[in-house]
Amino acid sequence: MFLPLYDQNPKRFVIKPYVNYGLILITTLAFTIQYILPQNAENYVIATFAMVPYWFADGRIDQIPFVPDEFTFITYAFLHGDWLHLLSNMLFLWVFGDNIEDALGHFRYLLFYLLCAAGGAGLHFLMFQGDLSPLVGASGAVAGVIGAYILLYPKVRVYVLARIIIPLPLPIPALWVLGAWIIMQFVYVILPQTDSVAWWAHIGGVLTGMALVFLLKRPEVKIFQG
């Protein structure tokens, strides 16, 4: 729909959002390793750390040695299908994640991010329990960041690269641009599925992020700020 470039939203509590930077770095490194592996090794990594609904529902397949398979509800978020998949997720996280870390604090932001990933995977699992397709990508966690951002900063101007006639950077209130993104996720799950995008994981992440922001935000941070 659009590419976010930056937002007019200064941080109040956190000088350096190093958790957000760390998540971007770790996720990028994880995909780089995944990308340079031989095909058989990459397939093994995906089979081990992606969330495969049917395997999880079956219970007879031990995906990750020595730890519960519930960990795949988080580990899948550090794998991606291709570079475009990775870069689009990391761009959204770069633009919006720092302010959510500012509003929550370092540790609670990390917890928030991982729980949003789990929430996205959880709803995807509920909708596709018989599916053998592996779920990968940080989209569910990033969707949680988007859900929190629209509740905290609906009036903040977000500069997005939107294509009208030619691509132009436009300042648009977060409520409009992110609200449109959220609405489109619900539209896409209604339309016939012609691609492999996990729309239900996006919705699960958004709903988880919206719920968690009330519980994890700093007391002095208010909902629906300017």
User: Can you write the helix and strand succession as a string?
Assistant: EHHHHHHHEEHH
Using only C-alpha atoms, the radius of gyration works out to 17 Å
First-to-last CA distance: 24 Å
- Taking strands numbered 1, 2, ... along the chain, how are they ordered across the largest sheet? 1-2-3
Can you summarize the main beta sheet?
3 strands, antiparallel
Low-confidence stretches: none
Count of beta strands: 3
Name the average pLDDT: 92
Shape: globular
Please count the helical segments: 9
- Strand content is 5-15%
Task: Give a nutshell description of this structure.
The chain is mostly helical and 226 residues long. 59% of the residues lie in helices and 8% in strands.
What's the topology here?
Layout: E1 3-7, H1 18-36, H2 39-49, H3 53-58, H4 72-75, H5 83-104, H6 106-127, H7 139-152, E2 157-163, E3 167-173, H8 174-190, H9 199-216
Antiparallel strand pairs: 1-2, 2-3
Question: What are its keywords?
Answer:
226 residues; mainly alpha; three-stranded antiparallel sheet; 3 strands
Task: Please explain how this structure is put together.
The chain has 226 residues and is mostly helical. It is 59% helix and 8% strand. It is built from 9 helices and 3 strands. The protein has a 3-stranded antiparallel sheet with strand order 1-2-3. Helix 5 (83-104) runs parallel beside helix 7 and helix 7 (139-152) packs across helix 9 (199-216). The longest helix has 22 residues, at 83-104. It is globular, with a radius of gyration of 17 Å. It starts with a strand and ends in a 10-residue tail after the last helix. 41% of the residues are buried.
